Amino acid sequence: MPLISDLLFEARAVAQSLAEYASGPHIRLGVTGLSRAGKTVFITSLIEHLTKAADPSLRGRRSTLPVFRVHAEGRLIGGRLEPQPDDAVPRFAYEDHIAALTGPQRQVEARHWPQSTRRVSELRIRLDFEQKAGLRPGRQSLAIDIVDYPGEWLLDLPLLSKSFAQWSRETFIASASAGRAALAAHWRGFAINADPRAKANEDDARRAAELFTAYLRACRADEYSFSSLPPGRFLMPGDLEGSPALTFVPLAIEEGEVYPPDSLAAMMERRYEAYKAHVVKPFFRDHFSRLDRQIVLVDALAALNAGPAAMRDLEIALTDVLTAFRAGRGNVLTNLFRPKIDKILFAATKADHLHHTSHDRLEAILRHLTTRAIERVENVGAEVDVIALAAVRATREAKVNGHGGPALEAVIGTPLDGERIGDEIFDGKTEAAIFPGELPKDPQAVFLGEPLAMLSDEIDYRFVRFRPPTPVRGKDGKPFPPPHIRLDRALQFLLGDKLI
Ligand SMILES: Nc1nc2c(ncn2[C@@H]2O[C@H](COP(=O)(O)OP(=O)(O)OP(=O)(O)O)[C@@H](O)[C@H]2O)c(=O)[nH]1
Ligand SMILES: [Mg+2]
Questions:
Q1: pLDDT value of residue 492
Q2: Closest ligand 1 atom to the C-alpha of 37?
Q3: 10 Å Cβ neighbour count for 462?
Q4: Domain 4-149+287-393+479-498 is in which class?
Q5: Taking the model in full, what pTM does it have?
Q6: 212 lines ligand 1 (CB under 6 A)
Q7: Distance separating alpha carbons of residues 163 and 169, to the nearest angstrom
């Protein structure tokens, strides 16, 4: 039987749809990805390009979105921000983020990447455009609601169909894998000694949750870069920071066994079920179910750098993500929400760390991952594509003479303060030529053998983080939209068919 809260949601959803219908054509675009994947930078750059693409003061510059047809065909009249329709959701802080990326005028040294974000946010942009001749001619407009939400929350969906015992068992098995066992040792040591039948005690529960969260956090660190680490709120708590809703851990219990109501096992199970009912479900119902299009940003370079175990884990995470998109199409969640997403783009971000000769290879690696994930999920029910992009290009390319050897393909940028290669430590002010090395031709190679850093004998793979590019400003001091790689292709896939 549907819950009253679900019925209320239905009623609200109908009212919302009517309101949206009244405001003309619109689309809800979800932007997600695990922490640091590049969501904030992507949305900021996208808005910067869409609001300035047709700006008359920037006319005369070569189009920076040649593959985005509505713009390339000269039909884009303009893009402007509008108040978003959801008063209860924080607004995406676009102005703060673009100010961070460019820095104040004449203070280019102040430019920096935007702050990490921790919760859902939203922004509406309206595009005015000329319809294509032959169709209903004349001016048209499309409202695009962009929703930024943590990918960690998406990976919680499989929990809804798992009992506490089943989730516990799977979490223990995953934590015993070769890549994770050492990171899990502390928590497992504690968990093995915890008696599920013992009387529940809040101090023990809190201590166990701290150890479990420390294990998840260690798995996420750069050198391991694991992706599949539910429950999502343990790493990305949003509004639940410090809340007792996050004080539960998996326990070594038997499926079907009954534990006394005041036992540790019963308390943990209650909290696990509460997490599903009061955290996971509302997120899917209130945010996810309303999306029309989705881009999933993936920091594939971080996983490549960390090695095959991280790549295999990324594949599991992508499979779970795809399962979420398919949800409602004939499984337990049918009553909860019906996703309407008809296009999903998986995007490997930060492609500017690589020379362009490797961009297609990065795309091929992500395609390989998603194809395998799609095979497992079967029938995603949406068109899926894959891209390698840089929303903000922080490097340029050059050939640099090797010492006596052939010229090497390098990328040039300003490494962040404190980044290092070997003994060299960068100061955040000086440009450097970095030889990123080539990605392997065969995408399968990255799932086997050594971390990418060891794949190439001739050049070792080098990965440093760069500062944002120095902004170029027009005569009026306004910064031009930042350089990018394939952002226009992403826009065409996600929005192109709504702008003809
Ligand atoms: N070179 C380069 N670096 C990027 C790009 N996009 C993101 N980054 C780097 O990745 C970091 C994280 O980007 P964000 O956009 O903040 O990532 P996020 O997914 O919003 O991260 P959270 O808010 O922490 O979940 C930035 O601080 C940059 O260092 C890009 O296009 N090029
Ligand atoms: Mg962010």
A1: 98
A2: 19
A3: 16
A4: alpha beta
A5: 0.91
A6: no
A7: 10
